[in-house]
Each structure stands twice: as structure tokens, then as C-alpha cells.
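seq/struct pair 1
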Amino acid sequence: MYYDFAVKIPAEKGKIFTKDKGGASYVLFQYGTEYKADRKYAVPKRAIIGKIDPSDRTRMFPNEKYQLYFPEAVLPDELPEAYRSCCLRIGPYVVIQYVLNEYKLPKLLEKWFRADCGLLMDLVSYLIVDEDNAGQHYPDYAFCHPLFSDGMRIYSDSKVSRFFSSVTKEQTTGFLDDWNRRRDHTQRIYISYDSSNKNCSAGDIDLIEYGKAKDNKGIPIFNLAIAFDKSNRVPLFYEEYPGSITDVSQFVHMVDKVTEYGYKKVGFILDRGYFSKDNIRYMEEGGYAFVIMVKGRKALVSSLVLENRGTFETDRDHSIRSYHVYGKTVKARLYEDDTKDRYFHIYFNPSKHAAEREHFEQTLDRIKIYLEKHIGDVITSSKVCQEYFVLKFDKSGRLASYTERKDVIKRELDLCGYFCIVTSEEMTASQALIHYKGRDVSEKLFSADKSFIGSKSMRVQTAQSLSAKIFVEFIALIVRTRMYNLLKETMLRLESKPNYMTVPAALRELEKIEMVKQHSNGHYRLDHAVTKKQKTILSAFGLSDIDVKSMAIKIGNQLSGSPVPADEPIEEDDDYGEDTFDIID
């Protein structure tokens, strides 16, 4: 990230270079060399420290790497008071403050972050309200919102960058220890655990590696996993790990962390990606229960489906109306040397049956069109093609004809619409499905993290900044998840289903609650009354228009320094290869 102010380009003889790329000129600092024994010469190690100011080529817009290599450089911490807007949007501030106080987060964060606690909570608000994680845009948010920082100071983007670079592992680990210590460890809970990957192109962060990205863009990634208490609907902790490590292998370390946090009466709700014999056995050794989705095409599951097919799909006693499926529970062993029976809950979804069958038929049609078009040609057939068709070739290796594997295709059609959940404890098919569907909240957590909080990419250049930004995002997810739950609960109680009771829509509506600065005395006052929609949203948090007016008075007093009577009316590093650089002496 490049700051919005310029500094003089450092005068480091023989170490400062420029590079033109994409219509801009960048300043690079050579911080060392690396000797290549196989090539018998040293390769310079350089990092981008700024972007040249087009209006004055002796100056540049610095980034966080500039501060790393030139720590004595003085950069502004605060922006001038004139930078504050004459119109402040206070609605989201009121609600976010309520959630922070409900979880007693200000006191807990202050324990570990002391002077920067206010800035951290402001960054949390910025992530939630603006749905963005780019640090250089934070001052734009601060321009028109009340802040949690002491005296509502408006910090610059360089201060934000320094904050990210200053957060230590001890602080984040200490917070997570305290956060999990507050949970009721005597209560039986089910933990939903899921992971996702994020893009990051910075080259010197150890976590960043090439791996199996869900949205593969051909760039390095790191993995982020979140453990979520489904019973109480709150995030518990997170893990960041290298992009090359698979979800299955990382799961064991997560189970160990659950033990370290003191959780005893625990069950895990897992997606099919975590299904493995080792993981099952590891959970059992720890005395943990599990609810896990199993791929419908696995041999064991498919054989159970076919054995029970036609025994429950139209029986009303097996209907689970809330999810529009039919379910049946049978006992079986998970693997050959399993020591006990598991509970396999087999489900049939009529609408899913039709959709999967049509998709499969279309796949077969596409393969047949492809094969028909290449009769007489030398082709490389795919695994899917060979699975469903018998291909015959002539002596020269050209495709002569093909026929369907009717028994294989029939089996696939018979399995359409079925899925299976395995549990370690005895329960009904309905109970197992309700437990597993609770994972929807953790799925929404990742949706919130990537889509609503703008964090599909991390936009950092150092490992410390990456860890700090992930931590701030985790706090934001705690707050946003609580907002989501309260809004959803309120909407279910309403006779109508208003479309403004989602988190993004509610925030947009609350943004309309504004304070304006009076020209006569420079004091901020509430601009207009709270609307009916806004009152409905506020009610989800146990707040009213009176609370908004009270908060407006406090904000006005804090910004002006003179109290108003309460009864007064209120209205990227880059790989440059063999490119040439211009050296600045």
C-alpha cells in the first residue's frame, strides 16, 4: 500500500534504483545480496519502497517497506482536524459499540493493545462498514464517521501501517487465550470447523505458497481456518497456515488446540474435505464426537444408498419437511478395521435428484458430441470419458467407435439426489441434518470475510502485517456475526420479512443517521429524527432512538470539548527477472 503523502527519495549511494512498470515509476532499495554457488555470482536482493511522484521526481509516495528499511524516517501519525467531515454518519457506530460492549471486547482488547485499542476498534468498524481491508482507504472512512480512538483522533494510513507492523504474536495469542477462557467449558458444544484460502502476492512471507486454491488464479495463497461454536453462534479461534498444507492434515492440529483451550464436551461438525481415517481415529482418541459429510460417490456410501434405495423416499415417516428431504438412519462400519458401528444418515432430495440427473445427462451429451466429432482422429481421452464409455481404436490408434457403459451410467443415475452424513453418536436423521446445517453459519463467516469484509486478497507485504490484519478481521467477524444473528432473530419475529434486515442493508440504512456541524458554534448535532426502518433495525440490538440521541450528545461533546445540555433540542514486491534498473547516485 502506498501512502497519500510524498517524501524525498533516500540518498543511499548505490542502493537506490528506479523501475518503470505499468505507466508508473517505482523506487527500489537494495538491502543485500545472495550468493548463488551454482552460478558463481551474487544476486542483488531488492524491495520496492515507494512510487515516484510524477509532479516531482525527487520525491516518492512511500509504502510500509520504506519504514522497514528506514525506521528513523518521520511519517505523520495524525491528520489535521480540518480533515473531518462536517457530516458524520453515526448509526453503525452506535450498533458496533453495543456489540463490542456486549462481549466486553474494549476491556479485553485494551489489556493487550493499550494505546492502540481505539485504533484497532476503528479498523474493525471500517472493515464491517466499508467492506474493505485496504489500509490506505481507512482515512476516508475516518473522515465521515465517529471513532473509538482517544479524542476521536483521525490517524493517517502510515499510522495504520505501523500499527499492523507492531502487532506481536504474544498479543494475538494472549487475546485468543482470554477470549476462549471466557467461554463456558462445562457446556456441551458442537464446533464447526472450516477453512479457506486467500490470495497474496508478496514474495517474502513464509505462509505464502502455491497450493490447491478454491479459485485458482495461479498466484500464491495461504490458508485460513476458523473454529466456530455452533451452539452459541460465536467464532472461537482461527489458524493461519501455509498454502501447500491440505485441510485434512491441518485438522489434527486444530483438535489439539481445542484441547489446549480446555474444551471437553465437544463434537465436531466437518465438511467432506476433512474425511479421513486418521482424522476419525484422532477425534475418537480425544473422546470427541463428530458429524461429518461423506461424498456420495464413495464406495461404502454408494453401496449403502443402493441397498436402502426405495425403502424411505416416499414414506412420510421419513420426511424432514424443514429441509424438503427424506432421511433414513442405518448402522455400518466406516472402514474394514473399524472397531464399532457408525450411524449413517442417508438422505434423498427430490429437487436435487432432478438437478443432478439433468447435469449428468448433459455431461454425457457433451462427451458424445466430442467423441462423434473425433471419429477417425487420434485423441487423448479423459478419465471421465473412459469411466462412462468404452472406446475402440483402429491399428493406427485412431478412434473407431464408442459405446456407453450402461451399468456404470445406471448406477450414477440411481445415486442422483442422495447424500450422506455420518455421526459417531446415535441420533435421528433429522437431528444429524440440523447439526450439519448449522455449518451454514460458518460458511457465511467465510462469505463475510471474503465478500463483505473485502478480504479475498490481503494487500500486505510483511508476515507481521499479514498476521495482524488477519487478527483484526477475526475481531470484525466476531462483531459482524453477532449483528447477523440479532438481525435474523428479529426478522423471524416480524410479521413481514423486510429486505433491510441483512447486515449490509442494515448498515446502509444506519449510515443515514447523521450529525452535522453547525456554523455558529462548530458543534455537531443530530440532523433529523430516526426513521421507522432505523428504529426496527436498532430494536434488534435492544436500542432505540433515545439511545441514538444520547450517543449524539456524547459525540458532539467529545468533538467540541464543550458540553451541550442534555435537554437542549437536537435536529507489492515483484519478480523483475533480468530487467534493467536506473541507479540513483
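seq/struct pair 2
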Amino acid sequence: MIQEVYERWCHHPNLDPSYREVLCNMEETEKQDSFYTTIAFGTAGMRGLLGPGTNRINLHTIRKANVGFAQYICEHGEEAKQRGIAIGYDNRHMSKEFAMDSARVLATFGIRSYVFDALRPTPELSFAVRHLHCFGGIMITASHNPKEYNGYKLYDEKGCQLVPHLAQQVIAKVNAVADELAITADVNEEQKKLITIIGKEVDEEYYRHVVGIQLNPDVKKETVKIVFSPEHGTANVAVQELYHRLGYHCIPVLEQCTPDPDFAMTPTPNPEERGAYELALNYAKKENADIILVCDPDADRMGVGVLHQGEYILLTGNQSGSVLIEYILSQLQAKQLMPPHPVMFNTVVTSDLGEKIAASYGVETEKTLTGFKFIGEKVAKYEVNNEKQYVFGYEESYGSLIQPFVRDKDAPQACLMLAEAACFYKEQGKTLVDVLYDLYAKHGAYEESQTSLTLAGQAGAEKIQAILSGLRASQPQEISGMKVVRFEDYKECRVVDHGKESELCGFTKSDVLKYYLEDGSWIAIRPSGTEPKCKFYYCVRGVDLDEAKAKTKRYQEAIAEMIQ
């Protein structure tokens, strides 16, 4: 079967010429992985390795996705086609080509599109959908994945990534496309008129909205040095422009400001990994900078380093999120700007600390599954009924949203608010780490960490499923000697709380397991939706950080033994 599909690709007259030589030179292992399945179009769109094959990201699999999306748009009538689709892209190999090809495929269905003239942040694409009153959006990006990857994400008319019940409609149409190689992107002169190039006019509106998030616009900025890196990606222009306009002292990591698809000057473009900070740390030590801010290539995630007592401490996404919550909510309260029914959103694998901070300010927390689309969905709901008012949303994976004129994680917003917070607290003689430690003293010490098991290919996918199935079946009663007091299974929608079983409500089914321990800690396990990984999340509470770190090590070792 694999050989048959491979041969069809090799000899198909519509095959893009750039793929033919690669196919001819494929070794057997690569051939197997490229053709053993069709790349999954899931609820988060598509993400995968670049290259020819049914299990790769390439012009033909992107076209297949676009045909399915186009059919979905057409079902919503002529108005949807005329409102059109906003299209953005990042710095990766083939991103611009995929974006323009997407516009052409949509045009063959009579659908308008608005394509950015150059790479832009993912949050600006979300903003553009709403600003231009489009029916939806397409973002070509692989986010924080390595250079060998690219991806395709879909947005609804609210600027939110498609939630499962909408995504399933598109998925069904994509899967029904029998032959991706038969699709062409040839457009006539009339169809070309459906494609509009957009640029600075949208930038200016986006910047205007971001500037509007400031809580203390007159804070003393000149004393705080910020080293900033876009990791070769889309945050470069937006963040530097915002800092320049507002008077922040920004020192860009120049070697990482070029839109290099090979990420030549960084070991990794992922702010979750220490390698993303190497060059920025060198800059910071030379300049004696107060903070380091690093964005991933599509500018939805932001990593933070803080100079504290002579050394640079890298914050996790949970920690930077907690500091932002404290700053934003304290200022809303101090300025009497807190809305009557404030709500904050985070996910089921996000630390408990943020929720405790929010509660101290009278702010309710609602949890969602992993994926900012679920937060965006709740924002849209409350925007209509006004039962609750949004004050913040974040995930443990270094992404947050300050104000919801965007419906996705927004690193430029986060960079601006974090810089403002650093300036505000420096006037009080505090670093952002001081603020974090004050939160530990008030709410308890938390050690939040994440590990992952990378298992690529068909065998890897099967192994990940076996791990989850085994844990689901065994349902451990203790982990490293600590009693499991509550167990949540988001796939089977069940809860076992102190031995009593009930239904888990309010969440879309998802392959997530979560164990609550007697000491107030929890451990969650889920397969990644975008990478060949099984992820393990730890939120461990201790009387102090040393105890929390020691317990975390024991829990991680216990989990490693359980999944062998």
C-alpha cells in the first residue's frame, strides 16, 4: 500500500517539480514515515514535517486542507464568500508560498482573501479577521516547532481558532478529498481580483489596540533595560515598534532579528527551552539588562528572564503568568477599574497559583482544555451575554492574552505589559522575581514543571496511546507514596474523588489524565496535539521551594517507572 501511494506521487503529472528529486532519493525508512498515513487534520489544524508525502506538510496536503475549508465556507453562502478569509504567515520555509497558494485555491471557489504582504504575528492575524469582518482566517505557521516543521491553522469569524464542533465539520470535508494531487491553484484574471494584499493599515490598528492595554503609561521607563529576541520570527517588527513608540529601553538581539527560516543563530526557537535564551543572556550580561523577553517564531508565546541578585532567572510560563496576574489585578483594583463580575481563564494543566492570586482579588477562574481556542470560545460567549467580564487569560505554555481584541495568545501584548510591570516594580525596589517570591509567601510555594517523552513515527504514536491506555486501566492509588485523592479522565468523562465516581462535565472529550495528590499537588498527562510527544505536567506544592523541588523530583521518577 505504501509503495503504491509512493509510486502514484512519483509519477503524478501535477506533482510540484520541487518534490520529485526528494521522492526519488528517499530511503526506505523516510518513505515509510512519509506515506504510512495521511497527515492528521485535527482540531488544531495541521502541523508536521515539511516534504513530499501524504504524511507531510507540502503544497498538495495544504491544498487538500484548503479545498475542505473552501467547501465549508461555501456552505455558509455567498455572504461568507464575500466577507472572505484573512491569511497570515511566519518566517518558515514555504510559509509565504503556502499562504499565496491558499488564497489562489480559495479564489477558485469564488472566495475573497486578504493576505498580509509579509510575515506577521499570529495574534495580528486573529485581530485582522475581526478588524476586516472576515468569515475566518488561515495562519501558516508551526509556532515553536523546529525548523523542519510547518503548519496550517484555521480561525472563525471571531478570530478564534476553530473549536472542535466547527473543526469537525472542516475535518470531514478535508478527509473526503480523495486525491490531493489532483487539486490545482490555477486562477483566471477575475479570480485574481478576489485576492487583496494587506499591510500597514492593519498594523496601525493592531498597534493602536495594543497601546491601549497600558495601565500605567507614565511609569518611569528609562531605568529598565530590556533585551528582546524574536528568535528570527514575526515578533521583531511589532514589539520593537511598540517599545520605540512608548519610550521603552529595548536592546534587540540583532543576530536573531533576521527572518531566517533555518533559525541559524538560535539552538531552538521555543521559549520553553533554555537554548532559546543563550544569545539573549550574553547580551543581557553585557548590558546589565533588567529583563530578557524572548518570543517564539509566530509571536504567540513569550519567555522571560529576570536579573535577580546578580543572576538571571528564567521564569516558567506559569510563573510569568502569575506575575502578570498580580500586576494587572492589583492595578485594576487600585484604579477602581475592576469590572463587576471579573473572570480569568486558564487550562486544566496550568498551575493552581494563578487561581489563588485571582481569588485574592475577587476574580473567578474558569478552566478549559489545553488550547487557547477554548479560552477564545468563552471570551466570545461572555462578550455576548456580559454575565462575566474578561480580565486575563493564559496557559502554562508561555502564552497569555491581556485584552481580548485578539482571540489567541498575544506575545506583543504580553511583552508590553511585562515591561510595564518591570518598570512599576523597579520603582518599588523589586524585581519580578521578588514579586513571585512574595506570591509564594502569601499563597504557598509551587514548583511547576513539564517533561515530555518524544516518540516519532507510527511506532511512537502507538506507544503514546499504549501509555495513556495503560494508565487509564491501572488507575494508580498512590504516586511516590503519596495518596491519589482525585482522578480525572477527560476522555471517558469520569471523576473518582475519594473513591466516589461521578461524571466529568463541561469539557470536550480529550485524552487527558489528571491525578490530585493528598499534599495539594497534581500531575497531568496528555499526548501533544502538535508534536510526537507525550507530555507530563507537575504542579507540586511545598512548605517552601526546596521541598517542592525535592517532591517534584520524586514524582517525576515515579511516573517514569510507571510508564516503562
